[in-house]
């Protein structure tokens, strides 16, 4: 196996990272573990890491550093231009659960939100503020800390959607256009990893992957509202929780995909020499 893995040792869910490390080693992968400081953009690369080989990172603190370390290839499956809600809607259209949502800058968003509640979230994949139901008063309170810290400003794009009752949610894992695993993660607003994953949710994930993908490897969250299944959002694989999905299948699928892609690219390069 040409692929090597770099794991975040100070992952917030330490038991999960230890389980993933063991699975990867059992599958024959080379694995290195590093601690990432929250206020730094640095990745302390271990001496054992061979930068001539493809590397896959796993851990949420890798994602903000994605563009700083192009040497880690493919490293982190993330592009801020494609991991935006507006990009998801451009790619998946009416398959989105809230396809009729509005995209507005911060002043426009505040002007549109009256006393009634609306679902509001950042357009970009950030934690500038938590997405959720807000009226103008509660949104102002939620945004004030982000504004004072400079995380958002008048140019920040905001998504405004009508509130929708969500009955259940599932996370699917897509690798090279194929749905390789899935898990439930919420039922009636409460975490639940034991629900059956319906065929319609899997079918929708395949349909989405055929239309457009934000990255070679990503997670796609799908929800049921009444009788309608819709896409909630895509998430970066490198930072995503697996919930009840088979971690072994996911990790092996990612490693195999990267290995095939790296080998094909290397063969093509040798052919042109």
UniProtKB/TrEMBL annotation:
Pfam families in UniProt: R2K_3 (PF14243)
Top-level taxon in the UniProt lineage: Bacteria
InterPro entries reported in the protein's UniProt record: R2K_3 (IPR025643)
ATP-grasp domain span: 103-251
Name of the molecule in the record: ATP-grasp domain-containing protein
Lineage, uppermost ranks: Bacteria, Pseudomonadati, Pseudomonadota, Alphaproteobacteria, Hyphomicrobiales
